Every structure is written in C-alpha cells, then in structure tokens.
Amino acid sequence: MIVAEQKPIEEIIRYLEGFNKIAIAACGTCVTVCMAGGEKEALKLASVLKVKSMEQNKHIEIKVVTPKRQCDSEFLEDIAFQLEDCEAILSLGCGAGVQFMVEKFKNKPVLPGVNTKFMGVTRDVGVWTEMCQGCGDCILEKTGGICPVTRCSKSNFNGPCGGSSRGKCEINPDIDCGWQLIYDRLKVLGKLDNLYEIIPPKDWRSSRDGGPRKVEKKEVML
Ligand code: SF4
Ligand code: SF4
Q1: pLDDT per residue as tens digits for the range 152-190
Q2: 170 lines ligand 2 (CB under 6 A)
Q3: pTM of the predicted model as reported, rounded to 2 decimal places
Q4: Which end of the chain is less enclosed by CB atoms within 10 A, N or C?
Q5: How open is the CA angle 199-134-72, to the nearest 5 degrees?
C-alpha cells in the first residue's frame, strides 16, 4: 500500500487561508490503513481546524467526504455533488489522489493534506516500512524476495557495499543491511549460488527515470 503521513497543522492552515467553505476529502483505501487520511483522521482534522478558526474569530464551514478511493473516477463521480458548494478541497489522499482530483474538479483548488512517503507494509501497530520503489523491472527472483533497490540504502545490485556492521546499514544503524537480509534469505533457500550471477546495470527507464509511466491492459480496455 501507499504510506503517507498528515502534514503539520500549521502548513494545512496556511494552505486554507482565505477559504471559508472547505471540503476535506478523505480516502478509504491506503491512507485509511496507515491512519493518515481516512475518515477518522479527516473528522479529527475538521474539528481542529474549526477550533483554530474560532480562536481567530473566524467562521469556516467544513464538510468531510470519503470516497472509497481518490484514484478511481467512479468513486470521484460519487462525491462530485457533495463538493459543488465548497471553495477549496483539502485532499487527504496520496499524491496520486490529489492529482486525480485536480483533473476531475478543475474549477476548484485541490490542496494536499498529507505527505506521501512510499510503498510499504504494516510492520507493527502504528509502524509502516518501505518495501518497493516501483522500479518497473522486478528482480526479487534473484535476491531471495528481498528488494536491493529499496532495502539497500545505496540500491546496490551486486552485494554489499562493505560498510555494514553486525547486519546493520552504515547509512543508518537502525536499519538492517539489505544485502545481509538477502544473504541470509538466500542461505535459507539454499540459493547462495545466486550471488555469483552478476546483475547487469539496470535500465532505469523502466523506473522513474523514463518519465511518467503507464500500464495498459488491452483485453479490458473499452
Ligand atoms: S525490484 Fe523493483 S519492483 Fe521489485 S520490489 Fe524492488 S523496487 Fe519493487
Ligand atoms: S550497509 Fe548494506 S544496506 Fe547499507 S548501503 Fe551498504 S550494502 Fe546497502
């Protein structure tokens, strides 16, 4: 899932300055799971914003809408009528959600309410960690299912940099060395021979370096 965290309240207040009728758009999928932009967080944010505006003798109207996903047209169409009378939309969806809302609601400012961080997993209650950078050419088969692009701080493709200590990364001793994890995993799988295969330099055009990417599934296209 995409992991995000809510922007500092001062920043959000700055974005909303001058608007009196605001819609906070939560999102019912990833940001709900990581507790950054679900309905619960949106309602809480609405209360905080109301209190802050009352402290300044201002009156603002805030409504909360929660499409199942902001990154799908059908769900945005469902909430369109609820957004008609607002002056600005504060989206608590990820960066993709915000930008899709911009395309769908062209006559209103759509402002970001969260910082989109990464694609990751729920590691523990309230803890999420990054697992994939969406490089577009997955090589997990070679590395025992552990991603060198993401889990190695230097995205090394052919073994460790030599700086790890006791299984921790030299960049940050709080994180595991990705290549130590890969080695340990390959050992368990009886696949240490994989380490002799040189992984060639990656063609990063399949990643972000090739510009905005597109996936098409011809058989389901209309
Ligand atoms: S190799 Fe690429 S696609 Fe596969 S997990 Fe790593 S970043 Fe994601
Ligand atoms: S210590 Fe390990 S994870 Fe850190 S940069 Fe070096 S190889 Fe990558």
Answers
A1: 999 999 999 999 999 999 999 999 999 999 999 999 999
A2: yes
A3: 0.93
A4: C
A5: 160
